[in-house]
Amino acid sequence: MRNDSREPNQLRPVSITTNVNKHAEGSVLIEVGDTKVICTASIEERVPPFMKGQGKGWINAEYSMLPRATHSRNQRESARGKLTGRTMEIQRLIGRALRSVVDLSALGERTITLDCDVIQADGGTRTTSITGAFVALALAVHHISKTVSFNKYPIRDFLASVSVGVIQERALLDLNYEEDSKAKVDMNVVMTGQGKFVEVQGTGEDAPFSREELNELLALGEAGIAELIEKQREVLGEVAARIGVK
Amino acid sequence: MRNDSREPNQLRPVSITTNVNKHAEGSVLIEVGDTKVICTASIEERVPPFMKGQGKGWINAEYSMLPRATHSRNQRESARGKLTGRTMEIQRLIGRALRSVVDLSALGERTITLDCDVIQADGGTRTTSITGAFVALALAVHHISKTVSFNKYPIRDFLASVSVGVIQERALLDLNYEEDSKAKVDMNVVMTGQGKFVEVQGTGEDAPFSREELNELLALGEAGIAELIEKQREVLGEVAARIGVK
Amino acid sequence: MRNDSREPNQLRPVSITTNVNKHAEGSVLIEVGDTKVICTASIEERVPPFMKGQGKGWINAEYSMLPRATHSRNQRESARGKLTGRTMEIQRLIGRALRSVVDLSALGERTITLDCDVIQADGGTRTTSITGAFVALALAVHHISKTVSFNKYPIRDFLASVSVGVIQERALLDLNYEEDSKAKVDMNVVMTGQGKFVEVQGTGEDAPFSREELNELLALGEAGIAELIEKQREVLGEVAARIGVK
Amino acid sequence: MRNDSREPNQLRPVSITTNVNKHAEGSVLIEVGDTKVICTASIEERVPPFMKGQGKGWINAEYSMLPRATHSRNQRESARGKLTGRTMEIQRLIGRALRSVVDLSALGERTITLDCDVIQADGGTRTTSITGAFVALALAVHHISKTVSFNKYPIRDFLASVSVGVIQERALLDLNYEEDSKAKVDMNVVMTGQGKFVEVQGTGEDAPFSREELNELLALGEAGIAELIEKQREVLGEVAARIGVK
Amino acid sequence: MRNDSREPNQLRPVSITTNVNKHAEGSVLIEVGDTKVICTASIEERVPPFMKGQGKGWINAEYSMLPRATHSRNQRESARGKLTGRTMEIQRLIGRALRSVVDLSALGERTITLDCDVIQADGGTRTTSITGAFVALALAVHHISKTVSFNKYPIRDFLASVSVGVIQERALLDLNYEEDSKAKVDMNVVMTGQGKFVEVQGTGEDAPFSREELNELLALGEAGIAELIEKQREVLGEVAARIGVK
Amino acid sequence: MRNDSREPNQLRPVSITTNVNKHAEGSVLIEVGDTKVICTASIEERVPPFMKGQGKGWINAEYSMLPRATHSRNQRESARGKLTGRTMEIQRLIGRALRSVVDLSALGERTITLDCDVIQADGGTRTTSITGAFVALALAVHHISKTVSFNKYPIRDFLASVSVGVIQERALLDLNYEEDSKAKVDMNVVMTGQGKFVEVQGTGEDAPFSREELNELLALGEAGIAELIEKQREVLGEVAARIGVK
Fold first, then answer.
1. At B136, is the secondary structure helix, strand, or coil?
2. CATH homologous superfamily for F14-242?
3. Is F49 on the interface with C (CB under 8 A)?
4. Are D136 and D24 in contact (CB under 8 A)?
5. Distance, in angstroms, between E67 CA and closest chain D CA?
């Protein structure tokens, strides 16, 4: 039995509130259980130096946790003077995942930066950030589309992410913090609305895992992501309609 | 006429929601108009090196803005690798102000860190942070008092802060961002529940000001702070009762 | 009785020696009691990026203390790899104060950087820096005026600064280090030759202060600054004549 | 046809030279095609602060590339003043992977640091580092075993890693740099001698991938790793005998 | 008797292997006894900002040691976030020495960066780096000469370096690590093929030295460098022929 | 003819003013021509970590230039966030040179830090710093000797330094900035009161130099240093008497 009485294949309650920031071109507060992340999308009409002159856009992500998002207070990375390896790894993952469903040529020479700030953490902050950032991104692209006429809509597909893991020989969906800290195998899965994989990151630091376990985890993740994408569709309403249309 | 139709001596709508963070010993979301700040208080049972062995506690504050708290996105200080002078100045101010109403000997050898994270900015973020952080601090001290018996209650008085300024020869209370950027004189006032000054910081970079203007601004600030302290009392409920009791 | 036998409203001996540096366009050694600061003004024929294309100039200030300016040696900020919050706060204050009496449009697209290096510290280093930096600035603008014909003289007024504080219920002018470390209220005042306020920064970390105390402190500061400006006029000689002329 | 005429399931030539460093307790030069990495293992008789007092050891990894390991010269991270996100991600991966086959309790309170320095890069530097670092680690543990009698041998199993990817709809083993830069899907697999997974990191930034493709890639990786482990056994000689013995 | 049985005026065995890196325009592995350094030369068709528009080239050097090049492991400078004073001093020396034999005008507006990475250290790493870097530089200039027709060949002379020192009143050539750590006087000499001095850096931190000792050390260095330059000529083969030709 | 009409073997006017800082245990203002350096000595009753438990003391030096010490303003190293290679090289040299005449065992477990801050620069700032720092050090050791009874006096000998160089084939003593920038060979010499060498650092970046030139430069330096040490003796008065006494 899970510590919050969920079924092995049950997500925590998911809530996505849109337009929570009066300045950002797209924004959401996403809550998955007690994990709460504010995702904002900011548009700039230029691209980073390494992308210049290619007629393409860029999607960038940054991730951070408020010092007291966690059980005990963490030192701010601004005070340490540098990002931790964990933060860098997570924001590289978020950016890469989002870019996989964006047609950068269709976007044109502009950058959209997704800021994922974890207000409260209870496991799954990186997967929740991806799921929330996708919605903020979709709102920002919709915002651009009000004044810019895209030849092709830049968002090719939906995208969401969830964690799965093995605890005491059982595969579980959407681990909370207490579960995460006991998991022998920990995997983050990112998938598209078409049911394809964008990222699969499985780690068995405490116990290597078999092909069977891997398959079971992927199946759980696939089902969970389908539910999350359903939720995204719902909150995006009419904005959802143009995604993936050719 | 002000851009949001307020009277010169009228505060913006103020809302203070307590216990917004499941981990922190004290927490609030304070909203003053469109300025929104999450303040959390974190208790550690030790003091910084320079305070060791004195039998006293310490109050520390940190301040930050989410990248898109502002109209256009700001680079994260963690990414720049250092704090700006503005951030340092603000967090020194918040810490100093809070310490002025705390009896550090009565607190005992523990540190309370107040994190003020601006979720959305529309002027007055430093004064709003002080007003909100005081409430989070009061909640944290109350939390300690459940298990520790203080000889003397460590919080001596209430504390709140507001900005005042001169625009087109008129003294105004609680400037929003648009007003702030047009003000010729800008002043932040921090006061106690007893109506005494803790900090007075007035700047006339664009136009030096006279003794009369200074007096008018201080009177406006005094009245505004009294209102804010009334609000603090209300949300603190029974926690307010022990503050300042000898 | 003060530890150096001064009256409550008496400044320490003030000495301002001009042209102490063979390279700088303006320079002074200012001594206020045992506090000694070298202020140099350096002219560059360009402005920082954020000021470009506005046809205006810029005044910038930097502040530092030699490691052994103080009673015990301080680590260099260059060795720590970053400026302390105190240094940032002080140099922001100096720059802001100087800009308040400069007509940046009249100055034209050039930057004057004021370096205030404390050779020996005995209280009041920030206020002494402002008073000395104003003289170095006036010399540098005079230097420019030898080759450039200003439509309007860029310096609008004199500027000086002094500290005031409350020790054992008495308001005192120009605190030395020993006094400063015992003061319950500490205030820095910056004023113009016309007797207007540019900055008022009062802090009662150890004891909040009343409106009456504030008034008494401002009166002391006002008188002290008038004396300092008299001194500035004297050392500037003919350079003083053009200041504030329209 | 591959640019170096290999079969889709063929590794590049692999060479592992042991004891290439006279100071290190374990060292190898590993060459996989034109990718060359020096891996050294350094033993310290203490553990990092977060591991103290648990009676356990620690395995740590650091990764770097010489500036001209790559086609065009890269700036040194020491000159930039910080590690890139890529480096942090890689060294976290190497450390995590190695720890998965080490019994930290059996190792005792000591730290083994694996330095992986890429002398020349041609794709697969992170997987090659893992494969080489395992051998250096095994040599270092063997070195300890000469003077320390382990109750249980601290290395539980072999460990190696390889990259796989999809280029033009074909799954390929062990991508070189040119292949890697054209791959639509890129996956790194780390496995044990028992054929279990330790890490699976698949990324389809350019094109999401299906469950079938994932399965095909894993099968290729599995076979390649078995070959690499055979090579490790060979160069370790008698040192190999104790690995995984209970 | 020396710890490796050498005569006082005898170099350690010297080996210079050219073209050890497939990417670099010039590269060597130089071994002097157990000291091993990889030197690569990288060409860029531009010069640093301070050299722009002068029609001249630039030679730059960087130096680093792998963490386990030394007897006990050293922390990486990339992890510390800054270069040590020792590294900066050495790389300034290498660059300055190489520039002394290069005609920067003849080279044209291009930069050659010499990276000296110490793979294994046993004394004399900076002098070995200079001797090796010269060969890599010569190969890189030769590489340029295949496509660019120089009016004047940019390398004016050979260049090599060796250390000398005084141990127990005896002057010794080419100190290894054990000797170096016992030396009372330590000197690094850099000379040209014409037998002129480029750098003489002698330090008697433990015991000041006389003019006679200085003379003896210089004589030893001069002879050792002549041998090293002979070795350089040999490995450079036909590339050597154009050096110093007018 | 030199630009300031000196003879080739003539020092610039030298002035050493002692006790210029009320806080430091030893301090001087040294002026050599227009080069002006404040040297302070600070005593701490502890040694750095790497010297602990050896019963020995330590001498450390730091060097810096005020931003406008030079013809055009230099950026502060504290603002850049790191020391330049030049600064590190110079402060390593000063510390090493001073330690060569101090008996660290006789000094006991204390650290003396010499801060050399260049107030105005006109060539020779590092050699002037050494000459001045020696006097500050001697004053500080004398200060200790008032309360501590040394078995052996910790300062073994005098120490001073001067620059020499070759301009248009002539060897010159004590180069000023204009000379220094035209010198083909540049050498810094540090010697003891007994006439022995502590450091010889000669550089011929623009033109390699012969053994004869080297000898001529050393002879010039030797004579100049003897004069400087005479000056040191004079200003130290009775403090000079104990130096080098066994």
1. helix
2. GHMP Kinase, N-terminal domain (3.30.230.70)
3. no
4. yes
5. 7
Please determine, for residue D205, whether its predicted confidence score (pLDDT) is greater than 90: no
Nearest CA in chain A to B27: A68
Among residues C57, C48, C60, which one has the least CA distance to residue C148? C57
Q: Once rounded to an integer, what is the mean pLDDT over residues C188-192? A: 98
Nearest CA to B67 out of A95, A38, A143, A120 is that of A38
Q: Which residue has the tokens 């020096």?
A: D38
pLDDT at residue C246, rounded to an integer: 60
Backbone φ, ψ for residue C20 (5° rounding): -90, -5
Bridge partner list, D16: D30
Distance of CA D72 to the CA centre of its chain: 24
**F86: pLDDT strictly greater than 90:** yes
Domain locations in chain E as residue ranges:
14-242
Is residue E59 predicted with pLDDT exceeding 80? yes
User: What confidence score (pLDDT) does residue E208 get?
Assistant: 94
Report which of residues D191 and B82 the model is more confident about.
D191
Number of Cβ within a 10 Å radius of residue A57: 26
- Determine the Cα–Cα distance for residues D87 and C205; give it in Å rounded to an integer: 46
F28-64 per-residue burial string, b: 16 or more CB within 10 A, e: under 16: bbbbbbbbbbbbbbbbbeebeeeeeeeebbbbbbbbb
Q: What does C120-150 look like in DSSP terms, one character per residue?
A: E-SS-HHHHHHHHHHHHHHHHHHHHHTTS--
Residue C201 and residue B200: Cβ atoms within 8 Å? Answer: yes
Inter-residue contact F27 to F39 (CB < 8 Å): yes
Over range A163-178, report the average pLDDT. 96
Residue type, C89: E
B125 a known binding residue? Answer: yes
In DSSP notation, F111-140 reads: EEEEEEEEEE-SS-HHHHHHHHHHHHHHHH
For residue C5, what are the contacts with CB-CB under 8 A and spacing of at least 6? none
Q: What is the pLDDT of residues E164-200, one digit of tens each?
A: 999 999 999 999 999 999 999 999 999 999 999 999 9
Best residue of C91, C201, C217 to probe chain B, by most B CBs closer than 10 Å: C201
**Do the beta carbons of residue B98 and residue B155 sit within 8 Å?**
no
pLDDT at C117: 98
pLDDT at site E246:
61
Q: Which residue of E has its CA nearest to D20?
A: E120
Q: Does E66 lie at the interface with D, CB-CB under 8 angstroms?
A: yes
| Beta bridge partners of residue F64, listed in sequence order | F117
The token pair at B79 is 């990414």
Q: Which helix (H) or strand (E) holds E234?
A: helix E211-236
What is the per-residue pLDDT across F130-180, written as a single tens digit (0 to 9) for each?
Answer: 999 999 999 999 999 999 999 999 999 999 999 999 999 999 999 999 999
Q: Which residues make beta-bridge pairs with A103?
A: none
Quote the ipTM score: 0.95
pLDDT-derived band at C205 (thresholds 50, 70, 90) equals confident
pLDDT of residue A244: 79
DSSP E strand stretches across E33-184 = 35-44, 58-65, 111-120, 159-167, 170-173
Reported pTM: 0.93
- Chain F residues within 8 A of E219 when measuring between CB atoms: none
Q: Is A125 annotated as a binding residue?
A: yes
Mutation pick from B205, B213, B222 vs chain C, by most beta carbons of C within 10 Å, is B205
Please, are residues A67 and B115 in contact by the beta-carbon 8 Å criterion? yes
Do the Cβ atoms of C192 and C157 come closer than 8 Å?
Answer: yes
Which tens digits make up the pLDDT trace of F94-104? 999 999 999 99
Tell whether B21 is within 8 A of chain A (Cβ): yes
Looking at chain A, which residue has its C-alpha nearest residue B29? A119
Tokens coding D28: 């190898």
